[in-house]
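Researcher: Next sequence.
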Amino acid sequence: MQRDELVNYLDTYLRMGEIADYGPQGLQVEGRVDIHKIVALVDSHQPCVEAALERGADLMLVHHGLFWGHEKRIAGSFGKLVRTFIQNDLNLYAAHLALDAHPEVGNNAELARLLGLGVTEWWGSAKGTPIAALAESPEAISMDELCARYETAVGSIKLALAHGPATIRRVGILSGFGATNIQQAADLGCDAFVTGETSHAQYYEALNAGINVIYGGHYGTETVGVQALGKHLAQKFGLAFEFVDLPTGV
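Model: Next structure:
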């Protein structure tokens, strides 16, 4: 498949031109023209690009790209990273908020699906785009059941806080760092909130708000979107696809 055809499809499918972000998204490094294999990872740092090259990637698909809205010198470790892409003619495509917000393959839509929940609306604006999912369970479930579903379908939980109702129907979902949205989730009537990472400052916020919270890790909650997007592309265009799991522990 031609690179430009794939990039144009991704830009349209993810609404790249409509969604503001913290830095330029989409095709961040232009490499070879012919695309046969996509390798997806959450991040784009040196061990990640080396893992993609080991697996024969023509295009590396990531959630966290290279550029975040401020100038950086092409020197030191960042210079080495950029040179690795260029010297190996490897394409890099990054989808950050656009992937968080996507209603089909986005991190939050996919987390809802994996947890057996149906998305009813979107909230939690980032750069003007609602990226968090408000989801409902068809039947009342316990916090233990929600945690079990998460660990079965997604991975290990970093921290679970049973500060809310014994039965859960409405769940707020915001991948990555969503701890500052705890009160907003409670105000929306959520019985539970699923997000990535937190800090000490948010512990009592959940307790005071009376809401259950699952922290799945920043990395863990953002593994699902690139996997869903990569599988979508593989099926639609007949491309080879592989996801590489390089957890950061955070």
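Model: The domain at 100-221 is CATH 3.40.1390.30 (Udp-n-acetylmuramoylalanyl-d-glutamate--2,6- Diaminopimelate Ligase; Chain: A, domain 1). The mean pLDDT is 97.
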